[in-house]
Design a protein that fits this description.
The complex is a heterodimer of chains A (538) and B (318). Chain A is an alpha/beta fold. Chain A has a 6-stranded mixed beta sheet, sandwiched between helices. Chain A has a 6-stranded mixed beta sheet with strand order 16-17-18-13-19-20, with helices on both faces. Chain A has a 4-stranded antiparallel beta sheet with strand order 2-1-4-5, covered by helices on one side. In chain A, helix 7 packs parallel to helix 8. The mean pLDDT of chain A is 87. Chain B has 2 domains: 75 residues, no CATH class; 222 residues, Orthogonal Bundle (MetI-like fold). Helices cover 78% and strands 0% of the residues of chain B. In chain B, helix 1 packs antiparallel against helix 14, helix 5 crosses helix 9 and helix 7 crosses helix 9. The chains are: A alpha/beta (538), B mainly alpha (318). Chains A and B meet through helix 2 and helix 4 of A and helix 10 and helix 11 of B.
């Protein structure tokens, strides 16, 4: 019997640094009817490239170099574009990472669903619309008979992602390629989308390639898992076996649960350095985006600010730094009340309160060398120049574990994502701050790199007694680094306390939902959770 | 919808303010022209008494701010004053010529806009191909030539060599529509050659810019044909910059056609303006200037409103 999809010795090359470089290195895989294969790896592993190659597609600047891609016995390698067009959508369909970017903003959602089946002559417009509504309903979209007639910007991220899963089904393909379909979503939304994907793969018996960097997620939906790194296959196997007995060290590293740090219990002895009292904030002047915020940060401690997107956690950072002046309440820093507006704060206030951002790529000037990046705060805050500054820069680079002689004259564009974030940390440290606000500092990084950054932040805290206010939506990060947890929802704090206190039941209802939504490595976790939620609904 | 109306209203208000500012600038500009109007009109032999009487008749003896507001008030009411050169009402003088200018501009636009958009789409579709390069080179060469040069080449080929089109675009109110069209074809083609490149390049660039979006990749992975992707998926999202460049070019067609009008001896507003400046016929200059300004501002306002309506995010807000 022919396999549904069979990829053999596939080599894919990408054009960079003026030559063709191999990015997928002789990967082979098979997919049977009704089977889900998880492709897992960090960025640069080539997993998306393989997923797209399964459709005979490569992004600009890439090319299929050699090998074979057989879809139901038909060779896609070197096939005509007309033939590729005829199988795309109908035999193999694609679900992209960001539904918000992958839906055309100019057309209604349902028009994008019906486009392919109508154009390919599979059904009439009316029929396709009826089908769409049917599948919207199956995928638990609210008001399925109406939602399709909205424009993409009128749907939430989770709804859009489910609408895209629905769209992939429009021509009844045999295989669906899921390319990180839940990566951009909050944990609670992720569950909804995962449930939709299970509905399709299990109940409708579709085969799928599931691409992700998150082992816990892939464990929920796939039968087999293939681990990739730098375009090579590390290992592959049945999901349960691979999770239980990984053969390779790399897989074990990915699997290892982030070590829980002992909570440093707060005592009255630890000085409160930041006290936020009864703070309200608003963008429009009418609706309040923050209300009644009360948070304390003590010296040498880490407070984690947790919430989904839209909860107001990043807004709070803006209020503390003075970018968005509070309309009510006070912020006391090191015993003195901070002026609400950034412009009116003293240089010392600015120096002692530093910030590290989510995207190290955009936070560093690509035209500056590391020497300039780190030298600037030294000169601005301490008036350091020449030899003195040079020594200090080298000391900072030592602290962030980057060899000074190797890195000091590089441009930030010559660094990896993790290295860039380290430089951002060093830049914050250069000011010798008392408090650093870390806004989602690890969410743009790969798992192993992120762990390195968290460990570095931890070491620096032990050495320098600096405090962190850690803004994140990732509960694994929270567990790994925090002493105190503050949980936010719709601009208010719903619960706060020591790490143990928050993480052990009984929880606040919302905290409970948030914690329960974090995927676990157990392959049965999602089924249990969905069953449990279904029973509580009835 | 209320939101959009408010946005449109705000733009419209801004346009009115812009036109007022321009009217002031025109007025001041004319004030600053060297020499005395009365002396120029009456000639050097005029006695001081006649000059004085004439100044009084023209109300030039009143302070400038009074004259500005009187002029503005009359203008809004449709009274553009009388020409100094021949004493006829400026309104009648201008309307026929302005209609001619609009007719020429509309004809040129009717050829140029569809041509530019289609060429732009095709260039984006066959990006970096021989076809793309050929269109770019041709259209760019056309804007690189001075307008009169293109005009004379067209006259040389079509009027002198083959004698199919008239070299003088002397239309008159007695002609019917077809005759008019035939008469102005050469100036219209000259204008088309000049404005097409700009619009076509912008269309191409806007579409190519959109082609890098994730939703274009998605469309491709749905197995949709390239032409449909460009027309259905890319073009609607590229509309805003395209509309803007079209508006700027339409404005140019109305406002900037002086040279072409002169070459073809076409009785348009541009030529009247040039004549009037040399004759120091102040009321005509001011009125024409303000009409040009109003056209320009209105077209831009229209472009803003259209590009707002082309964006579903702005069109429909909850």
């Amino acid at each position: 019997m022919t396999k549904l999809l069979e990829i053999k010795d596939l080599y894919i090359e990408g054009w960079s640094e003026e030559r063709w470089q191999t990015i997928v290195n002789g990967v082979s895989l098979e997919l049977n009817r009704g089977e889900v294969l998880g492709l897992i790896g960090e960025s640069g592993a080539g997993k998306s490239t393989i997923g797209l190659a399964a459709m005979g597609y490569t992004r600009n600047g890439c090319r299929l170099a050699s090998g074979s891609i057989k879809l139901e016995g038909q060779e896609l390698f070197g096939a005509s574009s007309q033939f590729l067009r005829s199988i795309r959508g109908t035999q193999i369909a694609y679900v992209a990472q960001s539904a918000a970017a992958s839906f055309n903003p100019a057309h209604r959602v349902i028009k994008q669903y019906t486009e392919a089946p109508v154009l390919k002559g599979l059904m009439s417009q009316k029929e396709a619309e009826r089908k769409a509504v049917e599948i919207y309903e199956r995928l638990f979209l609210p008001t399925p008979e109406k939602i399709g007639w909205r424009y993409p910007h009128e749907l939430s991220g989770g709804q859009l992602q489910r609408a895209m899963v629905a769209m992939s089904m429009s021509c009844q393909p045999d295989i669906i390629v899921f390319d990180e379909p839940t990566t951009a979503l909050d944990v609670t939304t992720q569950i909804e989308v995962l449930a939709s994907i299970k509905e399709i793969t299990e109940k409708m018996n579709k085969a799928a390639l599931y691409i992700t960097h998150d082992l816990a997620v892939v464990a929920q939906v796939s039968h087999r898992i293939m681990v990739l790194r730098y375009g090579d296959t590390v290992e592959a196997g049945e999901t349960r076996e691979l999770l239980k007995e990984p053969k390779e060290q790399y897989t074990r590293d990915l699997l290892s649960v982030r070590s829980l740090r002992e909570e440093k219990v707060e005592t009255e002895k630890d000085k409160i350095i930041l006290e936020i009292k009864d703070v309200d904030a608003t963008y429009t002047g009418r609706e309040k985006v923050l209300q009644d915020i009360n948070v304390n940060v003590r010296r040498g401690r880490t407070v984690a600010l947790v919430g989904e997107s839209g909860s107001g956690k990043s807004t709070l950072a803006k209020v503390i730094t003075g970018l968005l002046p509070a309309v009510r309440g006070s912020i006391t820093f090191l015993g003195q009340e901070l002026h609400p507006e950034l412009r009116k704060r003293s240089k010392e206030d600015l120096r002692k309160l530093q910030m590290i951002y989510q995207m190290p790529d955009t936070a560093l000037n690509p035209r500056h060398r590391i020497r300039t990046v780190l030298g600037r705060p030294l000169q601005f805050y301490f008036g350091m120049n020449g030899k003195e500054a040079e020594d200090k820069i080298k000391e900072l680079l030592d602290k962030i574990e980057l060899a000074p002689d190797k890195y000091i004259d590089r441009f930030s564009t010559e660094l990896s994502g993790g290295e860039k974030q380290r430089v951002c940390i060093a830049r914050a440290l250069a000011a010798e701050p008392e408090l650093i606000i870390c806004d989602e500092v690890t969410s743009a990084l790969d798992q192993l790199v992120a762990e390195g950054i968290l460990a570095l932040l931890q070491d620096l805290q032990n050495e320098l007694q600096v405090s962190y206010l850690f803004i994140t939506h990732d509960l694994a990060t929270v567990k790994a680094i925090s002493d105190k947890i503050v949980i936010m929802l719709n601009g208010r704090i719903v619960e706060q306390g020591g790490k143990q206190e928050i993480l052990t039941p009984p929880h606040h209802e919302y905290t409970d939902k948030l914690l329960a939504s974090v995927p676990e490595m157990d392959p049965d976790w999602l089924d249990h959770l969905l069953a449990e939620r279904a029973s509580t609904f009835i | 919808m209320k939101h959009v109306l408010w946005l449109v209203l705000k733009r419209a208000l801004a346009s009115v303010v812009t036109i007022l500012v321009i009217s002031l600038i025109i007025f001041i500009g004319v004030e600053l022209l060297p020499g005395d109007v009365a002396e120029t009109v009456l000639g050097q032999s005029a006695t001081p008494e006649t000059v004085k009487a004439f100044r009084k008749e023209l109300k030039l003896d009143l302070p400038p701010h009074v004259r500005y507001f009187t002029w503005l008030k009359d203008f809004v009411q449709g009274d553009f004053g009388n020409s100094l050169a021949n004493g006829r009402p400026v309104f009648g003088l201008i309307t026929w010529r302005f209609a001619n200018t609009l007719f020429l501009a509309a004809t040129a636009a009717a050829i140029a806009v569809p041509l530019a958009v289609i060429l732009g789409i095709l260039a984006a579709l066959y990006r970096n191909s021989l076809f793309d390069n050929a269109i770019s080179t041709t259209t760019l060469s056309f804007i690189s030539f001075p307008e009169f040069f293109i005009a004379y080449i067209l006259i040389g080929v079509f009027s002198v060599q083959f004698n199919v089109f008239p070299s003088l675009a002397a239309i008159s109110p007695r002609m019917n529509f077809g005759e008019k069209l035939y008469t102005i074809l050469l100036p219209a083609l000259t204008l088309t050659a000049i404005v097409t490149a700009h619009m076509m390049r912008q269309t191409r660039a806007a579409i190519i810019n959109v082609l890098a979006s994730a939703y274009i990749e998605m469309a491709e992975l749905k197995g949709i044909r390239r032409l449909r992707i460009i027309v259905q998926h890319a073009f609607p999202n590229a509309l805003s910059p395209v509309i803007n460049v079209i508006a700027v070019n339409l404005a140019y067609l109305v406002v900037g056609v002086v040279i072409v009008e002169v070459v073809f001896v076409y009785p348009g507003l541009g030529q009247l303006l040039v004549d009037s400046v040399s004759k120091r016929d102040i009321p005509v200059v001011q009125a024409s200037g303000l009409i040009f300004a109003a056209t320009y501002v209105t077209l831009n306002l229209l472009a803003d409103i259209l590009s707002m309506l082309s964006n579903p995010r702005l069109r429909k807000t909850h």
